[in-house]
Amino acid sequence: MSFDPLYHPYSSQRMSAYSNNGMVCTSQPLAAQAGLAILRKGGNAIDAAIATAAALTVVEPTSNGIGGDAFALVWTQGKLHGLNSSGPAPQSISIDGLKKAGIEEIPKYGFIPVTVPGTPAAWAELSEKFGKLSLTEVLQPAIEYAENGFPLTPILGFSWDRAFRNFSNNLKGEPYKAWFDTFAPLGRAPGIGEVWRSPDHARSLQAIAETKAEAFYRGELAEKIDQFSRQYGGYLRKEDLAAFKPEWVNPISINYRGYDVWEIPPNGHGLVALMALNILKGFEFTERDTVDTLHKQIEAMKLAYSDGQKYIADPGKMSVKVEDLLSESYAAERRALIGKTALLPKSGQPSSGGTVYLCTADGEGNMVSFIQSNYMGFGSGLVVPGTGIALHNRGHNFSFDPAHDNCLAPGKKPYHTIIPGFLTKENKPVGPFGVMGGFMQPQGHVQVVMNTVDFHLNPQAALDAPRWLWKHEKAVEIEHTASAHIVESLARMGHDIKWATGNVGFGRGQIIWRQDNGVLVGGTEHRTDGHVAIF
């Protein structure tokens, strides 16, 4: 990896971190320290990733939880492995059934968008296949945080209060009572610096640890989830939980200027990032902060996203092949559409033929890119009483159109926004990276990869650089730290540019690169309470 370690044009607050023994990067300091404690205890990067992920369900519940989904890219023993632990729709739900009940679209909250949670199974599967320590040891820091409590950090406190106000206005009725009892026990969101604890969460984590997640899918927690769902007319059943297993998948990639960029295949939308980079590699970029660079990046992303939103679905239900969407000929066809003015995105026809992100590395060469989410912050607004488990609402991403590739169907996985990334060169690991944040994620991946490969920014600078976010049609938001003359020029080219008043919505990223000499170089996100833990 070639970059100037001292070149840091976008922030004077933080520099890249260096270590040769181990590193954990994530959005919350206590979670990073949990992963570091496991490394110090003799665990490897996989153990540290699980410990960090479990801790994040406690110390950043505004973005993820036990009741969500997870994906991972794991470099170990000279190979990159992909894990898809996203769950399907319940067997009892269908478009026809919902329509007969008078429902015309999939809501954001409540039981209808709840799909089978995959996160606990991901932890158990990773631990069983690649871990060195027991799952009980690895989840212990998270259990202690939940039992003893922890003080809220600034961005966490802001997000928690925003969610509380939203749910107070929109979630009425008995099914949502357990959420308020769990996350607003004093009738309000806990404040910044205030200690919050969740003994129910601790007991659930203990049960998951002791049974290698069997309690969640075939035991006491599954029974409680089933009972809660039945009580309030939900669709999720213990049979749906018992049938779930994580899936080991072959990661997909494109070569970008000598580097292989890796993503999890659909139903995740890492494919969008790869399609955009495949288009962009046909251009030459010498400077990051120019009108031409941003214009082409935005146009490529619009083209890639329009294809992704049409075709990405449960892999067995896609009408086109991933390799056709990533072909050089299709990239050239889409690239030719980029001109000097903003275009309205339309999907092509290739030839047939709310989230937390973390990354870890150890001194043995193992590296993990891991992401998990409840979606839209706290998810469905439902907490299983007596468990602390907030259920996600990932089914909201299904289409209600029966003719769409991503239409809702029993046992089908929805289009998924959470994506871990990984970079290799000449079959050697460079390292894990990710930028969480809903539909920002592929856009963040493209910007971080280009910041690294094209513009030679170190990890911290690559994350600190101003970001843009394509919203829809010609609408683009851009961070207030971007240059005014660039924004004005983009507007003259037909882009509907809006200055962002803050940095919420532009994603939260983490990076670890391994240098040729084995030294680890990490960066964390200044847009959240990010932290790099090293030893």
Automatic annotation (TrEMBL):
Highest taxon listed in the record's lineage: Bacteria
Name of a matching Pfam family: G_glu_transpept
InterPro entries in UniProt: GGT-like_enzyme, GGT_lsub, GGT_ssub_C, Ntn_hydrolases_N
Alphabetized SUPFAM superfamilies for the sequence: N-terminal nucleophile aminohydrolases (Ntn hydrolases)
Transmembrane portions of the chain: none
Protein name per its UniProtKB record: Gamma-glutamyltransferase family protein
Organism whose genome encodes this protein: Paenibacillus radicis (ex Xue et al. 2023)
